[in-house]
Design goal:
about 5% helix, Immunoglobulin-like, extended, 82 strands, mainly beta
């Protein structure tokens, strides 16, 4: 046989599912004479699937020794069809037909091949499968002279079953050389399906093993035969004793899923299977030894049956092993998992080649942690598992009996050296055990000349998967909201089982009417009116908004910035597959309006989310979240603003409960009302909760920590009030039921304690703060802050109570690290003492800009600070700890780039620090640096420990070697890279690592990141211009037209620019246009900042075309318009009609036009209508009609700018009251 795995005539396929265990099918080759000398291939996964379904396997032998079979399914008149002409296996060399071959001495009778396999499986050599004279191919389905061999079998799937995967295996004796010489490519075969004729199939894998004969010929040209290897399988050569011949076996496998899915259930046939039979014998002095040839095929099909209740895990393996006389071969199959608890049944199957019914002591077993179980049933005995049978057992059956597979053509019980068998393992047999992810397959034969050998080729296992354990939680923040405030709902769906949860859906709210939410039957519950969804996000999958009838209102790509069709809706999310332990988070935000209160001062609403997987029933969220809306005077939140954006992040930032919020009389400081923040960090006041409240009066809101201090500045949202110079204070005017919201206190963060080598947060570090004389942690720090222990996020924070008299001086941080860590870090050293700036300079002061540690970026930090009573907060002060010694990475590497940003052509310096933190000396190591794409090393700039040391350059790799690391030794390398001109903008990472003398990695990978930014000269686009006084209204700045100072211009990005004393402005690096086609830039004048009476005479906004490295000019003109005031009332119009009387059309309108023309380019028409109880709609129609008529007349004039018209409606009775 070949030294690679072989799968016999079948399709190996693997499905992985939820509920039960099915036994696999093996294809195995068995023989008496040869023994293996080439390498085996262990079994590997061919396919895997989780589905409600199972396996079906069919196949047939392609050869027979029976005269009956020969006559029925072979061409007996000629030896044509690709077989060797003139060499038919009969001594003497003359050509005879197949009938003569069958008439040779010692011919095997038909009964020897077709007799039923006896339970004792004993008898003469006539039962030894393919140990017959004249083993020959069959041709049961010839469709023409090109079909040289063929057999068939019927695939039975049953109603409602669909094919999910299918694999075809075929095998025979045939070397690569003979395959070429005889034009029988081993990777090709023909497959006929129930719906199509023969189609050529090409194998994805073809394996070969080479088998050595068990004995040598006794003399020259004697004992020569075709397949037993005594002369090298019939190559015509004379082999003298004691030389032993060899012979090969191959196995091919092809994915035929599409063909079988199209063909469905019914008869299949395989034709032109490449192999050798007796007619290929080139020299046969002893025809009685023309034995041991075999050929056959197997089709393995994995199907889905949605009517089943349980999911199955279906896994298909294949390989090729040779089990010789006295051999034990073991191969491990893995990639599945049995249920973690409870009993279960398993179905397995085996396919094997060359097994002999009359030769005993061959067996196969499953070996797991709970024991060994040998495959056996009434047809496949424990000591003769591979006997040329084609039998099956079914999942969960009782007893040890077998049933036949579906019909084969021919259907002899003896498969002539080819086994396809399945074995049921009941739950009572603890053959595999719970929670098992791998088992060993053990194949054995007994020692001795009379024992069997065989060749395992394929195995499948069908077992139950774990029942998916889906969980869902829901929370709401804040639980109480005022009108106009935003409430955030967070739903988390988690798979806590051991199998994939597929087709997971989440819906909110659930249908309380009892209708199955999974099928989305109508009607469906919706969120109440007045709860307006504004945004929906999900960590995986997609969500849509639907109304009560299930109609989609907003699709998956349209769930941010919602402003319409966003109430009376429900949320429908398709989350896809959740792997074991995985979760999906859905967040949706809603704004509360007056409709939610439904006329009440306060109203509560509870909505429940549901989730479901394909493997289970709907489940409700364990948290029945309730949101309460209320009418308030003023409200706000207190939270730790870790990203400094002054906007609360409901999922990533901690809300601070227990903070005191006071309403004060700003004149006297008297406390008029007090509240404490709730678990959501929220507070609110109503009119009745403020002593002596007077609507429309200014009040002060003050925030204090539980100890009476605060170091953060309050934020007044929606321009409702002004923050004062006092930290944690807001001044604003309160109006009854004003619903002033977002009067907040975002607390500035402290920092993170982290691993200096990896950047990961360190939990369990104790952080303390010491101060100058007079400092008392109990008085001057918030409760519990001294000796605080970091959590999983490594976060720490100290609040120094300046109001409690915290002394001026130096304050120092210290850390007691968890076991193995070291403080102070030697990898990243601290800076000196920070003189904390005033809040007028920086509010707050950021040590670094990143909220989380970044070892690839800036790592500055301080342990000492000089504070006085007017200093600001210090944030993002991240403290590194050196990690424990790690024998896997004994060398710790840190790489830094002091230059965080660069432009094309810049020189960027780097520093590499490599430290030995192990207890072992490392000699002849190599420090290997990988340069970012587009960067280049500058020769002569590298130093090692201060000494010039040029690296070995290989492409982008720089190597310093050999480098020795003594105990606790640190090496420092500096070097400079230059940025190439063709590099695109963005982040570029330089990495470094250390390897030992054998090239194995002995360090972490240190990285440093540089951001390549735009160059002001070559990449940027500048915008310049003037806001000028357009005296003549021609929209161009003519000589003598001066600039207008103090005018504000705005970009689409919110950037504000103010014109200088000459009306000029300059926007440096306004944009970085597309390098190949440029871009548009939009600029707009804030007309409110123009001098009184001025109006723009040019377009606003302006859109200019921008090109990289170019200057663009955009001027804006404005002038004082000359007003033509026209007053009209209803008497000028036709009664109840929008048009004027004819006399005013003919006389009045032309006169108005003349006045406009007299005013020149800067004319402005102001139309005033005096209303006298006319309907508003009629008044608007009349004004529109007049303006339209005047514009039509004006348009007839040439070279005139667009006419500016202002309209005004006044009440006539007010005019009469004003009259004397």
């Amino acid at each position: 046989m070949s030294g690679q795995p072989f799968l016999l005539a079948g399709n190996a396929w693997f499905l992985m599912w939820v509920c039960r265990l099915l036994v696999s099918v093996f294809l195995v080759f068995c023989g008496v004479f040869p023994q293996i000398v080439s390498a085996d291939r262990d079994f590997q996964i061919r396919s895997q699937l989780t589905v409600k379904g199972g396996f079906e396997v069919i196949g047939n032998t392609q050869m027979s020794c029976s005269t009956g079979d020969f006559g029925a399914f072979s061409d007996v008149s000629t030896s044509a069809g690709g077989y060797d002409s003139g060499q038919d296996g009969i001594a003497g060399g003359a050509h005879d037909d197949d009938t003569a071959v069958n008439a040779a001495p010692a011919q095997s009778p038909a009964g020897a091949c077709t007799a039923t396999l006896a339970s004792t499986q004993s008898g003469g050599n006539v039962r030894q499968n393919n140990l017959f004279n004249y083993m020959h191919f069959l041709n049961a389905f010839p469709t023409g002279p090109t079909i040289t061999n063929s057999t068939g079998a019927v695939l039975s799937l049953g109603a409602g079953r669909t094919v999910k995967a299918a694999y075809l295996y075929w095998s025979a004796w045939l070397s690569a050389a003979d395959a070429t010489a005889k034009n029988r490519p081993r990777n090709k075969v023909l497959l006929m399906t129930p719906t199509s004729g023969y189609q050529e199939v090409t194998a994805a894998t073809t394996d070969e093993i080479s088998v050595l004969a068990n004995s040598a010929p006794t003399g020259a040209n004697t004992d020569t035969s075709l397949c037993d290897g005594n002369d090298g399988y019939g190559n015509g050569a004379s082999i003298a004793p004691p030389v032993k011949g060899t012979y090969p076996v191959y196995q091919s496998v092809a994915d035929v899923t599409s063909l079988v899915a199209a063909g469905g259930a019914g008869p299949y046939a395989v034709g032109n299977l490449p192999g050798l039979d007796v007619r290929d014998s080139e020299l046969a002095a002893k025809p009685t030894l023309h034995s041991n040839c075999f050929a056959g095929w197997t089709l393995v099909v994995a199907y889905e049956d949605t009517s089943l209740s349980d999911f199955r895990s279906l896994t298909l393996f294949d390989g090729l092993l040779t089990v010789g006389q006295g051999d034990t071969k073991t191969t491990t199959v893995a990639g599945f998992e049995t249920p973690v608890t409870g009993a279960f049944s398993t179905l397995t199957g085996l396919v094997a080649y060359d097994g002999d019914a009359n030769i005993l002591e061959d067996s196969a077993s499953i070996v797991s942690g709970v024991g060994t179980t040998t495959f056996s049933n009434t047809d496949n005995l424990a000591n003769n598992a591979f006997n040329g049978s084609n039998t099956r057992q079914t999942l969960g059956q009782s007893g040890n009996a077998t049933t036949a597979f579906t019909a084969r053509t021919p259907s002899d019980p003896n498969m002539i050296g080819f086994d396809i068998d399945t074995f049921n393992i009941n739950s009572g047999q603890t053959v595999i055990g719970n929670g098992v992810k791998a088992v060993d397959l053990r194949f054995q034969t007994a020692a001795g000349a009379g024992t069997d050998i065989f060749f395992p080729g394929m195995f499948f296992i069908d077992l139950p998967t774990e029942v998916v354990t889906l969980g869902i939680t829901k929370r709401v923040s804040p639980a109480t909201v005022a009108l106009g405030e935003t409430v955030t709902f967070t739903v988390v769906v988690t798979n806590s089982g051991t199998s994939n949860a597929t087709g997971v859906v989440m819906r909110d709210p659930k249908n309380s009417s009892g209708v199955d939410p999974y099928t989305l039957s109508n009607p469906h519950d919706v969120l109440p009116a007045g709860l307006l969804l504004s945004q929906v996000t999900t960590s995986q999958g997609s969500c849509v908004l639907k109304n009560a009838t299930g109609t989609t209102l907003h699709g998956a790509n349209d769930l941010t910035g919602l402003s319409s069709n966003n109430e009376n809706v429900f949320l429908d999310c398709a989350l896809g597959t959740l792997t074991p332990g995985a979760s999906a988070t859905i967040t949706f935000k809603a704004t509360v309006t007056s409709a939610f209160l439904n006329g009440s001062q306060s109203r509560s609403y509870t909505n429940v989310a549901i989730a479901q997987a394909e493997q289970g029933v709907p489940i409700e969220a364990s948290d029945r979240t309730t949101v309460t809306g209320e009418t308030v005077l003023v409200s706000g939140r207190v939270w730790e603003d870790r990203n400094l954006d002054r906007i609360i992040d409901e999922t990533g930032e901690t809300k601070r409960s227990g903070w005191l919020v006071d309403i004060l009389n700003p004149a006297t400081g008297e406390v008029l009302g007090s509240k404490t923040t709730d678990v959501d960090g929220r507070y609110s006041f109503r009119d009745t909760e403020i002593a002596g409240f007077v609507s429309g009066t200014q009040y002060q809101i003050r925030f204090l920590s539980p100890t009476g201090s605060t170091l953060s500045k309050a934020v007044s949202g929606n321009n409702a009030g002004n923050t004062t110079s006092k930290v944690g204070s807001i001044l604003l005017t309160l109006v009854s039921n004003g619903n002033i919201i977002e009067q907040n206190l975002p607390l500035d963060p402290g920092g993170v304690v982290y691993n200096a080598a990896t950047g990961a947060p360190v939990a369990g570090a104790t952080v303390t703060l010491s101060g100058p004389a007079g400092f008392s942690p109990a008085i001057h720090l918030a409760p519990g802050q001294q000796n605080q222990v970091t959590g999983a996020d490594g976060f720490y924070r100290f609040d120094i109570n300046q109001f409690a008299g915290a002394p001026t001086g130096i304050y120092t941080l210290s850390v007691s690290p968890p076991a193995g860590y070291t403080f102070v870090s030697s990898l990243i050293s601290p800076s000196g003492t920070l003189d904390v700036p005033s809040a007028l300079i920086a509010d707050p002061f950021q040590v670094v800009t990143n909220a989380a540690p970044d070892i690839n970026g800036k790592t500055t930090y301080y342990l000492s600070f000089y504070f006085d009573g007017n200093d600001t907060d210090v944030v993002h002060n991240h403290i590194p700890l050196d990690p424990p010694s790690n024998t896997n990475f004994p060398i710790l590497v840190v790489k830094t780039a002091p230059k965080e940003t660069a432009v094309k052509g810049d020189l960027v310096p780097y520093e590499i620090t490599a430290s030995n933190v192990d207890t072992t000396v490392y000699n002849t190591a190599s420090i290997i640096d990988t340069v970012p794409p587009g960067f280049k090393y500058v020769p002569g700039t590298a130093t090692l420990d201060g000494v010039t040391a040029e690296p070995v350059i290989n492409g982008r790799t720089l190597t310093w070697t050999p480098v020795n690391f003594a105990l606790d030794q640190t090496h420092v390398i500096t070097m400079t890279l230059v940025v190439g001109s063709g590099v695109n903008l963005g982040k570029y990472v330089n990495s470094v690592q250390v390897t030992n003398s054998s090239g194995s990695l002995i360090s972490n990978i240190g990285t440093a990141t540089v951001l390549l930014v735009a160059d002001a000269l070559t990449d940027c686009n500048d915008i310049v211009g003037t806001v000028f006084d357009d005296a003549n209204g021609n929209a161009y700045q003519d000589e003598g037209e001066r600039g207008i100072p103090g005018v504000r211009l705005v970009t689409v990005n919110g950037l504000l620019i103010t014109s200088d004393q000459y009306g000029r402005y300059h926007l440096a690096c306004a944009d970085i246009p597309q390098i190949d086609r440029g871009g548009n830039f939009i600029l707009k004048v804030d007309e409110r900042t123009l001098p009184t009476g001025y109006r723009l005479t040019t377009e606003n906004p302006r859109v200019v075309r921008a090109t990289r490295g170019k200057l663009v000019k955009a001027n804006f003109g404005a002038g004082i318009l000359k007003v033509v005031r026209v007053q009209i009332d209803g008497r000028a119009f036709v009664a109840d009609a929008p048009n004027l009387h004819a006399q005013w059309i003919d006389q009045g309108l032309p006169e108005v036009l003349d006045k406009i023309m007299e005013r020149g380019q800067l004319a402005l028409l102001r139309l005033v209508y005096w209303r006298d109880q006319e309907p508003s709609t009629l008044v608007d129609e009349r004004i529109d009609w007049v303006i339209s008529e005047i514009r039509s007349l004006y348009a007839e004039q040439k070279d005139r700018p667009p006419l500016t018209v202002e309209r005004e409606i006044r009440e006539k009775n007010l005019m009469n009251q004003a009259s004397p």
